[in-house]
Amino acid sequence: MTYLPKPKVHHPDLPRNALGLTRRDYEGSLSTLCAGCGHDSVTAALILAFFELDIPPHRVAKLSGIGCSSKTPTYFLREAHGFNGVHGRMPALATGVSAARRDLWLVGISGDGDSLSIGLGQFCHAIRRRVRMVYILENNGVYGLTKGQFSASADIGSKSKKGEPNQQAPIDPVLLALSLGATFVARGFSGDKEQLVPILKAAFRHHGFAFVDVISPCVTFNDHEGSTKSYQYTRDHYKPVVHADFVPTHQEIVAHSEEGGVLDIRLHDGSVLRLRRTERDYDPTSRDAAYAYVRRHQDQGEVVTGILYIDSSPSEMHALSGTVETPLAQIPYEQLCPGGAALDQLMDSFR
Amino acid sequence: MTYLPKPKVHHPDLPRNALGLTRRDYEGSLSTLCAGCGHDSVTAALILAFFELDIPPHRVAKLSGIGCSSKTPTYFLREAHGFNGVHGRMPALATGVSAARRDLWLVGISGDGDSLSIGLGQFCHAIRRRVRMVYILENNGVYGLTKGQFSASADIGSKSKKGEPNQQAPIDPVLLALSLGATFVARGFSGDKEQLVPILKAAFRHHGFAFVDVISPCVTFNDHEGSTKSYQYTRDHYKPVVHADFVPTHQEIVAHSEEGGVLDIRLHDGSVLRLRRTERDYDPTSRDAAYAYVRRHQDQGEVVTGILYIDSSPSEMHALSGTVETPLAQIPYEQLCPGGAALDQLMDSFR
Amino acid sequence: MNDLGPLSPDEAAAAALARPCCGGVNEFALKIATVNGTGSASANGLLMQAIFRMGIPVSGKNVFPSNIQGLPTWYEIRASGRGHTARTPVFDLMVAMNPATYRQDIAEVRSGGYVLHDSTWPLQQSLQRPDVHFLGIPLARLCAEAFQGGRERLLMKNIMYVGALAALLDIDLEVVRTLLGEQYGAKKGLLESNVTALRMGHEYALGHFACPLPVRLQRLSATDGQVLMDGNTAAALGCLYAGATVAAWYPITPATSVMEAFRGFCSRFRRDEQGRNRFLIVQAEDELAAAGIVIGAGWAGARAFTPTSGPGISLMNEFIGLAYYAEIPAVFIDVQRAGPSTGMPTRTQQSDLLLCAYASHGDTRHILLLPADPEECFHFAVRAFDLAERFQTPVFVLSDLDIGMNDWMIPRLRWDDSFRPDRGKVPSAEQLERMEIFYRYLDVDGDGICARTLPGIHPRGAYFTRGSGHNKLGGYTEDAAEYTEVMQRLARKIRGAAEAVPGPIILRREGARASLVTMGGCDRAVREAIDRLAEEGLPLDYMRVRGFPFGDAVARFLAEHEINWVVEQNRDAQLRSLLLLETKVARERLRSITSYGGLPLSWQQVAEGILHDGEQSVP
Amino acid sequence: MNDLGPLSPDEAAAAALARPCCGGVNEFALKIATVNGTGSASANGLLMQAIFRMGIPVSGKNVFPSNIQGLPTWYEIRASGRGHTARTPVFDLMVAMNPATYRQDIAEVRSGGYVLHDSTWPLQQSLQRPDVHFLGIPLARLCAEAFQGGRERLLMKNIMYVGALAALLDIDLEVVRTLLGEQYGAKKGLLESNVTALRMGHEYALGHFACPLPVRLQRLSATDGQVLMDGNTAAALGCLYAGATVAAWYPITPATSVMEAFRGFCSRFRRDEQGRNRFLIVQAEDELAAAGIVIGAGWAGARAFTPTSGPGISLMNEFIGLAYYAEIPAVFIDVQRAGPSTGMPTRTQQSDLLLCAYASHGDTRHILLLPADPEECFHFAVRAFDLAERFQTPVFVLSDLDIGMNDWMIPRLRWDDSFRPDRGKVPSAEQLERMEIFYRYLDVDGDGICARTLPGIHPRGAYFTRGSGHNKLGGYTEDAAEYTEVMQRLARKIRGAAEAVPGPIILRREGARASLVTMGGCDRAVREAIDRLAEEGLPLDYMRVRGFPFGDAVARFLAEHEINWVVEQNRDAQLRSLLLLETKVARERLRSITSYGGLPLSWQQVAEGILHDGEQSVP
Ligand SMILES: Cc1ncc(C[n+]2csc(CCOP(=O)(O)OP(=O)(O)O)c2C)c(N)n1
Ligand SMILES: Cc1ncc(C[n+]2csc(CCOP(=O)(O)OP(=O)(O)O)c2C)c(N)n1
Ligand code: SF4
Ligand code: SF4
Ligand SMILES: [Mg+2]
Ligand SMILES: [Mg+2]
User: Fold this and answer.
1) Residue A172 structural domain
2) Cβ atoms of A139 and A112 closer than 8 Å
3) Cβ(A108) to ligand 1 under 6 A?
4) Minimum CA–CA partner of B117 in chain A
5) How confident is the model at residue B4 (pLDDT cuts 50, 70, 90)?
């Protein structure tokens, strides 16, 4: 049976963005996830972020691996190309897409199984390569689609539905990304759209690899008591440290005003990201401070969220490689082929 | 052509260890690496460590991936089983060997290409699983065997032999291991056997996953000026912070004497590891302090070495899994098969 | 087409297909259409088990979506006093519980059949069919009246239709009640609601319909000595009995339940007095690692296995080649699903055959075992470890989703306590002590199999294992002759396994000059097809291959028949290809019948294959 | 064995093999035995190039160890005025520079041949052979006298033996000097030492031996219009000319130099005015990632490729299946080496054929191109991109170490400036704007190929790409009929490629009733065998398949011959298997000749194959 596309109904009263589109224009097919699944909230946040950023849907490429989380690209941006690849290998596909089409907005959706188990190497190397993309890890501590095994992000002692405690140390993707020198590292919670949407908007404005870990509970297999990835647990241990407001290019701002914990960061495209810190001395521009802070609070069982680290003028893959501005896939063949005369000349050096 | 085994000549004057063996008894075939290759020094250090630890050669299993580094298990312990697997997958093989034979000493040898590129996921997960083994990464910043491409541990700006600078951020295996909660993290230098042998001895005594990153220059492809993994560069930026002495079980010691930077750590088997710190307040028992220290000095271009972090009573895979003491491969079949009667009884529940 | 009986094959096939088939007493099929995540699975299982307990052969096929909750799902039950338990696509009764699929479900009932539906809301006019009986029960309303809370109401609807079916099909209510008791024993409240719902459904049906229907049950004793079991559970039991101690895996549908079952059995049968485990299960980070762990453990002397499915096998390719070339035992249980790529993870197929036979780059060739049902899953799992250790090589057990995840009726599994594992040529410390020198890859007795030492046993046993070129002494080599010598021995060794793998099952019919050849889970449908075609006057022989490399018996059988229709569940006729390559049979004798839509095979598909023979072109 | 000519095949083969072959003017082979890492490679290349510049067809085979420094390495040069440039195992002259392999090297010279060695130290008595001429030159001593420093002395020894060989073989010293000038042009000092060493070797030989030897050279003009090039360089050039912009790889012998060459060409020809790159090369973290990057780039509309070897293909299996099923163009250049597993990384083989043809789990089938030499590496690389985009599927170019890393004499590569890439059915924004609705997997014209849109072009082109079940509209499906329909179209699509891949090369001989069938780098040895056997009165036809799926011409050719010996470099007769499976040829017509020790094929091995036909058993 074929999944039904969500009917595209036009509500004349819905607000429109700069492109004249409504939020509905950023939606996709109906979700087939479990009712209440955290991933659906991430989808909703993404739809809002795209809408508010005035991004033309078809200028986005949506990629994912395999898993419940990786199904979500079908649920937003029906007018964008989507690619549901193989398990854990979205980063490689994204690298290829970025290589070919540096002009597209790229969003990759993954799960904790997808990114931290089978795809761990690819995840780390996409960070290293600085592929320009927004990388979202919908983190629920389990393998949802294969029915509830612990993932590599499950905390020690977190209990399975049957009550067995997990024994292995978790991989915290935020710490990992910081360790590997990622230039934008954030964590959100699918239960807090107020925080998540601005994070996503900032991530899309980041001219590099923007990593967003989203705690996104699995209501079916990991939302029970004893789980450290449940809605309840996350709410109880939630520690937002940095809230973000996005100030578009054209708006007047006072750069780097530091009052009241506010920190303004000028981004690559000239726009400004205004960060409001709940802890005044938290420095989201220091990789080491961010790492130490997250570690410290992790040991206290807290889930630190917000834009935790940002390097506002990073270099990305194309800059590092010195590629032309024209997307490689769109260079006319005439500019690619050296031609017969050149070949003939070249032949002389093979005698 | 077949590689020739090193002739086993007996020198009557060579010192003997508690097993009555000489160092020669810990050797293997003649090395086929380039003259001066750092890896050969690591081999030499390993031979000494095994000799001094009085380990019966045939009670060791030596595993490796593929690369010049991964060839080295042939060059020591000719009386031990060796396994030169596939590229980047030694950790999985080691996990299997450990699962089957928890009674063996396990040493895994890898390279920076082997562990940080193709094998990155496996390396990280072996740490997570806490496989009891000594994991040695012979780190030269290049792919030696495939002739000199940058590896993932090459520093930004480090130059290839042809003079091209590396553009991508390095993966520092020490930081990575610390991030992932490894319980023994050390770094050595193949040019400093005085430091390396005690590190290796301590690693073998560690009852868990002991990670030893060894800067091991590739004389053929990465020992030139401009390389940050050359002998010269490493010597110039060398920063040993912790020296180790190993105090066997039977020797009297003053536990945790802290004078003169000395720190005694009692190991799982009752023996004591005496750490002499060059920086008095360096705390090798604090994962976060170690991380911060290494990061700070990394930014200053320094290569911090020594036993950088140790958790002296870790749990390892078998403890976490609650396995019996008898190696699984050696349990008699009679204890494994529930027998016909049990099966018959079981059948009743399938009606 | 040849003339092989009173009727030509296509005539016979056409006649069989044309024969009106409608169910009757102890011969019918029903299908239950629900939504996944609503608890219908256990109700459906209950129904099937009840029929089984009444002594009537039965099978159940779960047709479920690749998601967790909220999508259409189906369960097909076939009861057959004659013992035909293959899937049948002809349904006498449809339990249509999912409005989202009403149209398709109602269309699927045979003419004259029945549709049981929830009449709380009226059925749309356009869904009506004049040739079908609609049996409406206001399930939702009844549940709303009798039970509290959304979840319980949802769950009890399922039990209620079970109750109604019990009345309609004349299922012994006592049997169902007993089953419920066994299931909910301790949980009194639950048991009570279930029994209530069951009774309500039963009474409603009795009160409103002419019960029982012409399609119905009557006690038999045809299930004595039988059990209902799925192949993954059976395979896990096989691994347990074989003495496997190390298991590594990465979750993947439909192989996941092999490890779940293994873990369950180990917790029960593999704990010592202090509660410590005589097993170790590693949930690996991916399939590459799982394969590596199994190979590492096998190298070190443990019996080790990994269950996986197609994508996993693809990922394990490199490691499989290592195990082949370095000669390390390893057992791979491939519970096949519909490929290629992610394909249809919850649909069945037999399409990894060629991949497994020749997995990995370079010249390789692997031992395959092809179980047809859970019974063989059990025995072949045991055999796989023996073969892996005896031949020091990877062995693949090729099961599939249908065998692995559906409950099959099989004889009670039996165990011969005199069984001792064949650990192959592994010299002990004492034997090594007595040897002058040991060479790992020296074939001293000409069977292509060399002695293999385990680490840590004796210094003299030490050798260096490598996936790179080596000579017969175990030394590294790049010499053409030395390399070739080892490669030739390897070919000889694997050829030698042909007579050690389970031989084909051959069934002969008087006068047959053609045959149906098949493998694995096609077995029951093909045998049913043979019965049906025989009834039309077309006698066909039957061969089911059960292992690879093929033994002589396989080749001989093929040569004896003018036509061998090879029936299999993949697009590219992979079994036919393997037979063509690996026996000397003439191409013309091999015809192909394939069905690969992902549902278990039915005899009708076999008959249609014969009917349309020649139209299907094998690529 | 059949009687196909005046002599039976085995008699003809025996006669050919028995014919005394010793070199003469412009017909001889020499082998240089040295130690790797000592600089002999460039000296050996110099020698070969000099012969080439003298107008005499020549080939060089580098037989090197899988390590970096200090192990034995060989270089074989064959000069053949008649144009036979396959490897020959008969050496007229051995330059024995490595005492560690003296014994084996000296043993390899044909009776009556020559051994050039360093006589600084006396040759062990036991190494002497009465039937061979020993030519001793005190190379080490001469170098020690003439040069300073260990490294220079080591290097100059090589040039010195080149000088001596120039005298012995009558190589024009001027040619060598010119070559040195081209090589060291700017580096005056180096040039000087080289010329000195060259002269010293030359003079010593002239002064001490009867120069030239009977095996020697004489200027010809048989290399006009030819170049010396290795296949990896040629493949890289092909990728450049095809317009590939994205390349991803993981280093692996013997494929590494494809990317090195590609990078070099791109730096030269693919920079814009500001020096920015019109290409992007990603050194991936492994082969899985390399495949993914290529597939991602192909999906997004770039021409992308990855060069690799066997282990890489094994690792790419999962991704290959995705590209097949989701229909994404991708080019894989597999420079094959000896498997299985790590195997012999520096030896050649053709053993990835079956793996590539059917790579990945589930039903898959891939387009293969089988170049025989660097010229075809160039053209087939270009063709691979056209086929990949036209058929929207992975395409494999199966080269090997011999073709890829050795220099071959081939005609100058030419380029037709009117060439425009075939990008396949990719609707533009304008076309999409005019469409009412777009469906990704709808076959509107019956060729099995559907329109493919690129991301970011037009909202109407949007579709969802997935490796899971999908129907012809591009929607997700688990429906048997919908799934099957797409799978059937895929089979049809790939079948359609049979006539689009390069057709076989067929050469006929008067009266031939049997043939030699081969692929890839076996070409020259097989053609030499045909010449030699024809001389003995056995006419044989020749077919070299160049693409898969096989077109009609392949099947027709096989059917025309009573015997087709399939000559290939792998153990399991993989090409023969593929022919058996994928054409309708009768099994009996296909015989097998295999050679898989890792060295390039020689005509003698072909003749021996015919002689011993029937003894080799195909598994
Ligand atoms: C190669 C491979 N192995 C295994 C699977 C089975 N599989 C599908 S999704 C999944 C895990 C998904 O977990 P996660 O990424 O955390 O996503 P979630 O469902 O929790 O959102 C697995 C193991 C697969 N599809 N492919
Ligand atoms: C699957 C696979 N890909 C590629 C290779 C080729 N290869 C052999 S060694 C190596 C890199 C070795 O680098 P490293 O691990 O750093 O070892 P080193 O030689 O520097 O000691 C590569 C890429 C291989 N053997 N297998
Ligand atoms: S199983 Fe968990 S992760 Fe998957 S859809 Fe349901 S709630 Fe979400
Ligand atoms: S190439 Fe480098 S790493 Fe390899 S043996 Fe030589 S010096 Fe060592
Ligand atoms: Mg998850
Ligand atoms: Mg290295």
Assistant:
1) 23-321
2) yes
3) no
4) A121
5) very low
At C37, the amino acid letter reads: G
- CA-to-CA distance for B106 and B88, rounded, in angstroms? 17
Q: What is the pLDDT of residue D613?
A: 85
pLDDT the model gives residue A252: 57
B9 belongs to a structural domain: no
Q: For C25, list phi and psi in degrees, rounded to 5.
A: -65, 125
In this structure, the number of other CB atoms found within 10 A of the CB of residue C278 comes to: 18
Work out the average pLDDT over D407-411.
Answer: 98
Residue B341 lies in a domain: no
Task: Point out the residue among B128, B169, B172 whose CB comes nearest to the CB of A171.
Answer: B128
**Amino acid B13: pLDDT:** 86
Query: Pocket of ligand 4, candidates B64, B139, B145, B150: which has the most ligand atoms within 8 Å of its Cβ, to mutate?
Result: B145
Compute the distance between CA of residue C488 and CA of residue C481 in angstroms, rounded to an integer. Answer: 10
Quote the DSSP letter at residue B18. T
Nearest CA to ligand 3 atom 8: A37
Which one of B35, B86, B146 has the shortest CB-CB distance to D341? B86
Give the torsion sign (CA, A175, A156, C263, B106). Answer: positive
Residue with tokens 């002497």: D128
DSSP-derived letter for residue D476 is B
Asked if C211 and C167 touch (Cβ cutoff 8 Å), the reply is yes
Looking at residue B35, the DSSP 8-state letter turns out to be T
CA torsion C431→C436→C441→C447, rounded to 10°? -60
- Residue B322 Ramachandran class (φ > 0 left, ψ -120 to 50 alpha, else beta): left
Q: Which ligand is nearest to the CA of B75?
A: 4
Q: What are the helix (H) ranges across chain B?
A: 38-52, 68-71, 90-100, 112-113, 120-129, 173-179, 193-205, 231-236, 287-299, 317-321, 339-347
Please count the structural domains in chain A.
Answer: 1
B305 lines ligand 4 (CB under 6 A): no
C116: enclosing H helix or E strand: strand C109-118
- Phi, psi for D431 (deg, rounded to 5): -60, -40
CATH number at residue B27: 3.40.50.970
Ligand 4 atom 2, closest CA: B218
How far is Cα B173 from Cα B123, in angstroms, rounded to an integer? Answer: 10
Whether A2 is in a domain gets the answer no
The count of other CB atoms within 10 Å of the CB of residue C173 is 17
Rounded CA separation D160/D38 (Å): 14
Q: What percent of chain C has pLDDT over 70?
A: 98
Task: Kindly state whether residue B125 falls inside one of the protein's structural domains.
Answer: yes
Q: pLDDT tens for residues D45-63?
A: 999 999 999 999 999 999 9
Report residues whose beta carbon is within 6 angstroms of any ligand 2 atom.
B 66-69, 87, 111-114, 138, 140, 142-146, 151, 218; D 250-252, 287, 311-312, 315, 342
ipTM above 0.85, yes or no: yes
Interface residue ranges in chain C relative to chain A, Cβ cutoff 8 Å: 37, 65-72, 101, 104, 250-253, 256, 283, 285-287, 311, 341-342
Pairing of strands A142-143, A133-139: unpaired
Separation of alpha carbons D254 and D345, rounded Å: 7
C368-397 pLDDT tens trace: 999 999 999 999 999 999 999 999 999 999
Above pLDDT 70, what percent of chain D? 98
How much distance in Å is there from the Cα of B69 to the middle of ligand 4? Answer: 8
> C48, C282, C442, C452: which to substitute to probe chain B, counting the most B Cβ within 10 Å?
C282
CB D329 within 8 A of CB D388: yes
- Whole-angstrom distance, CA of residue A318 vs CA of residue A330: 15
DSSP E strands in D525-589: the ranges are 540-545, 547-548, 563-568
Q: Is the pLDDT of residue A211 over 70?
A: yes
Q: Give the three-class secondary structure for D441.
A: coil
Top-confidence residue, D8 or C210: C210
Amino acid identity, position A15: P
